[in-house]
From TrEMBL:
Main location: cytoplasm
The protein's annotated pathway: Amino-acid biosynthesis; L-arginine biosynthesis; L-arginine from L-ornithine and carbamoyl phosphate: step 3/3
Catalytic activity field: 2-(N(omega)-L-arginino)succinate = fumarate + L-arginine
Protein name listed in UniProt: Argininosuccinate lyase
Keywords: Amino-acid biosynthesis, Arginine biosynthesis, Cytoplasm, Lyase
Length: 456
């Protein structure tokens, strides 16, 4: 079949050139949206009298027939028709004949593809927000179980201070809350209709862009036709938000991978989220967590890829914009699957409470408790810090811990230290006492969880 834009040309392209320029291998993912956009467009053409009712109804019947065939996977896309738009127009011509050519009145592929992507991303954003919301629910439920589970808190990956494991989980809840907010705000930029901007300058036909937007469920229309066909900010925002989300998931996965190791043994993943080794029979590898950590770089690449495409494009449409889709599709699939995995993995993760607690009792993460104790007795904190630092060094040299030092040895250093110091050095007590707003104390963690449940 002759190309639908072929009137200007008298030469014939080579097949390999056509294949290089074709986007149908990937933009066929927009088939559903393309048909939805076309239905709204033809209804607008009828509404404004640009098409007769008979012509419009014939086109609508053809488009609805194509929707049924698409649902049954009965449409075979071809590279010869290069993209989803020309493929659909060809199918429509086969369905209803020459009147199909009237569908493209007052429309360009430039505003058509932009409309398709806005529709696609609106659907994806709705699904992403729902999955993040569910993961937040999983985190809150798990945190509720482990408010009084004592775990080591880290800085520089060194034991710092004991904390509530529920508090640790709620830190990720806060991150995911911000992620959900970002994707929700992203919807505002996706929920704009470019349809009717045509190639770049609008059209001389008496179209009604607000009518088309309402048919498609958009909240508003682009106010500038050049911007409408060349804007990809809504996709860049999605990719940026996805990169931040994946960064959060990757950090969590990094910790899970460490916690699953023989050296930590803090948690165990179920078999569903683990794999074995082809040579080492004993292995149980946290592969799903590792894959999410690895796929984070892939999502970053999708963002930087489109940023690089966009940085040098003059207004308005350029063929470079064909490269805006694969990264969007890839990132959408990646984050949706990753969120499902994270929700299932954390919900079923077994926590070794005894091992976590033990790890806070054979270290010096209670050193700050001793320094705070001395400061509360009136000693300047810097002086208290110096005293405790020297005590830690002595303990390391002698092979014991702060809680092992006899009271008389403490009082030889300063009479400020009394019998109650041993309770203060206990990990459980140390965590419970940190009751400042947002702290790891049990009451504060419960307040975080109560607030989260109200939000959810």
């Amino acid at each position: 079949m002759a190309k639908l834009w072929g009137g200007r040309f008298d030469g014939k392209n080579e097949a390999w050139i056509d294949a290089f320029g074709a986007s149908i291998p990937f933009d066929q993912k927009l088939a559903k949206q393309d048909l939805i956009g076309s239905l709204a467009h033809v209804k607008m053409l009828i509404h404004t009298g640009i098409l007769t009712k008979a012509e419009g109804e014939q086109i609508i019947a053809g488009l609805e027939a194509l929707q049924e065939k698409l649902a049954k996977n009965e449409l075979t896309f071809t590279i010869e028709n290069e993209d989803i738009h020309l493929n659909m127009e060809t199918f429509l011509h086969q369905e209803i004949g020459p009147v199909a050519g009237k569908l493209h009145t007052a429309r360009s592929r430039n505003d058509q593809v932009a409309t398709d992507m806005h529709l696609y991303l609106k659907e994806v954003l709705t699904e992403v927000v729902a999955k993040i919301h569910h993961f937040r629910e999983v985190l809150v439920e798990k945190a509720q179980e482990h408010i009084e589970t004592i775990a080591p808190g880290y800085t520089h990956l060194q034991h710092a201070q004991p904390i509530s494991f529920g508090h640790h989980l709620m830190a990720y809840y806060q991150m995911l809350t911000r992620d959900e907010q970002r994707f929700t705000e992203n919807m505002q930029r996706a929920d704009i209709s470019p349809l009717g901007a045509a190639a770049l300058a609008g059209t001389t036909f008496p179209i009604d862009r607000e009518f088309s937007a309402k048919e498609l469920g958009f909240a508003q229309v682009y106010q500038n036709s050049l911007d409408a066909v060349s804007d990809r900010d809504f996709i860049l925002e999605f990719l940026s938000n996805a990169s931040i989300l994946m960064m959060h998931l990757s950090r969590f996965c990094e910790e899970i991978i460490l916690w699953c190791s023989y050296e930590y043994q803090f948690v165990e993943l179920t078999d569903t989220f683990s794999t074995g080794s082809s040579i080492m029979p004993q292995k149980k590898n946290p592969d799903m967590a590792e894959l999410i950590r690895g796929k984070t770089g892939r999502v970053y690449g999708d963002l930087f890829g489109l940023l690089t495409v966009m940085k040098g494009l003059p207004l308005a449409y350029n063929k470079d914009l064909q490269e805006d889709k694969e990264g969007m599709f890839d990132t959408a699939e990646t984050i949706l699957t990753s969120l499902d995995i994270m929700s299932g993995m954390i919900a079923t993760m077994k926590v070794n409470k005894e091992r976590m607690l033990e790890s806070t009792q054979k270290d010096f993460s209670n050193a700050t408790e001793l320094a705070d104790y001395l400061a509360s007795k009136g000693l300047p904190f810097r002086q208290a810090h110096e005293i405790v630092g020297k005590l830690v060094l002595q303990c390391i040299q002698n092979g014991h811990y702060l809680q092992d030092i006899p009271l008389e040895a403490y009082q030889a250093i300063t009479p400020l230290i009394e019998e109650d110091i041993y309770e203060k050095l206990d990990s459980y007590t140390a965590v419970k006492r940190r009751h400042s707003l947002g702290g790891t104390g049990f009451e504060q963690v419960q307040k975080q969880i109560d607030t989260a449940k109200a939000q959810l």
